[in-house]
């Protein structure tokens, strides 16, 4: 894991990103719908420029192996962000997402001064649940018909980690 780089996406990543997403369609469906077209990627980049969102590409040997997003950052007395992530095929299950998530959590708490991260995960997405559990998240609840994914309202489990939890982990 010594050659892994975490960095924010740029316009120069568009073609590699879209190719990786296209190659990963069966891995992503039905869990997540990442940008799949030029227009969607440009919207993703625009969203990344907002102060309420941070996105990180996980790069290994010049290949995009995963993406981690901190979305809808709320400041004031909440200091919370919603976490989203997805691996690219064939890099899933090889530790890249664990490595990347550990570093993004550190960034969120230490550099962005967030207090809490929440991940909403479909109950049958065992790989994502295992990833957040191994990263110190705890299950907080279950929300029926919580998020629309691929044009269907999906149930989700709510998982969270606080600054205090992270320092214990």
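^ Assign residues to that structure.
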């Amino acid at each position: 894991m010594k050659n892994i780089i975490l960095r924010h996406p740029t316009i120069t990543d568009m073609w590699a990103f879209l190719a990786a997403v296209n190659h990963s369609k069966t891995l992503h469906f039905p869990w997540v719908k990442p940008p799949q077209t030029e227009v969607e990627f440009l919207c993703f980049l625009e969203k990344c420029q907002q102060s309420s969102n941070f996105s990180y590409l996980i790069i290994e040997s010049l290949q995009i192996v995963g993406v981690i997003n901190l979305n809808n950052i709320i400041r004031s007395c909440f200091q919370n962000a919603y976490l989203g992530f997805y691996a690219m095929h064939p890099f899933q299950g090889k530790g890249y997402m664990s490595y990347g998530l550990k570093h993004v959590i550190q960034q969120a708490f230490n550099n962005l001064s967030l207090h809490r991260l929440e991940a909403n995960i479909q109950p049958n997405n065992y790989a994502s649940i295992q990833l957040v559990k191994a990263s110190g998240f705890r299950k907080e609840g279950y929300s029926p018909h919580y998020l629309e994914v691929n044009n269907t309202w999906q149930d989700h489990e709510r998982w969270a980690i606080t600054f205090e939890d992270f320092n214990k982990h």
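Residues 96-111 form the longest helix (16 residues).
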